[in-house]
Design brief:
By secondary structure, this protein is α+β, with helices and mostly antiparallel strands. The chain has one domain (13-171): Transposase IS200-like (Alpha-Beta Plaits, 2-Layer Sandwich). It is built from five helices and four strands, in the order E-H-H-E-E-H-E-H-H. It has helices at 27-30, 32-45, 73-90, 118-134, 149-154; strands spanning 13-19, 49-55, 59-65, 111-114. The chain has a four-stranded antiparallel β-sheet, with helices on one face. A hairpin with a 3-residue loop joins strand 2 and strand 3.
Length: 176
């Protein structure tokens, strides 16, 4: 069995990709209110800053900054996944189960990357905000509703038309 070693940096900034087990599902966007509630609930009990986030139908990307002295992002993700699963289950949405009866809504693991510096942070922020265009969900970043891009525009960090063209425009690589 592969041993996953996560880098634990107290007060660190991290990029995440978290994915549903069914890559054809649309549960995250169809039940965005439940996902928001799960984030809010966990953040109230275990504070963290969501620097940026984008929610697509079956996966999400986020950059979090943890409080000084705290490196427990796995516990926070576990709680968010659990809370959202419960929220969806209460709405009688069919969720597959494992042989043991446990819900099989989420992939058991997720991608985590420790943000090294400002350049690395900005690369991941761009990646997050451009992701709906990359996946062909919209033609312009501004057209995807489930993104922190809109907050970045409101506070003046990005222009409304940022990332509005195709991947070929400007020669920028937004690969994973």
């Amino acid at each position: 069995m592969v041993m996953y070693r996560r880098q634990r940096v107290p007060g660190g900034t991290f990029f995440f990709t978290v994915t549903l087990a069914n890559r054809r599902s649309r549960l995250l966007t169809e039940h965005i209110d439940g996902l928001r509630e799960a984030f809010h609930h966990v953040r109230q009990r275990r504070p963290f800053e969501t620097v940026a986030v984008v929610v697509l139908p079956e996966h999400l990307h986020a950059v979090w900054r943890l409080p000084a002295g705290d490196a427990d992002y796995p516990g926070r993700w576990r709680a968010i996944k659990s809370r959202f699963t419960q929220w969806v289950g209460k709405r009688e949405v069919p969720i597959p189960r494992t042989r043991s009866g446990a819900y099989r809504l989420w992939q058991p693991r997720y991608w985590e990357h420790t943000v090294r510096d400002e350049a690395d942070l900005h690369h991941h922020l761009d990646y997050i905000h451009y992701n709906p265009v990359k996946h062909g969900l919209v033609g312009r970043v501004q057209d995807w509703p489930h993104s922190s891009f809109h907050r970045f525009v409101r506070v003046g960090w990005l222009d409304r038309d940022w990332g509005g063209g195709s991947l070929d425009e400007g020669g920028r690589d937004y690969g994973e």
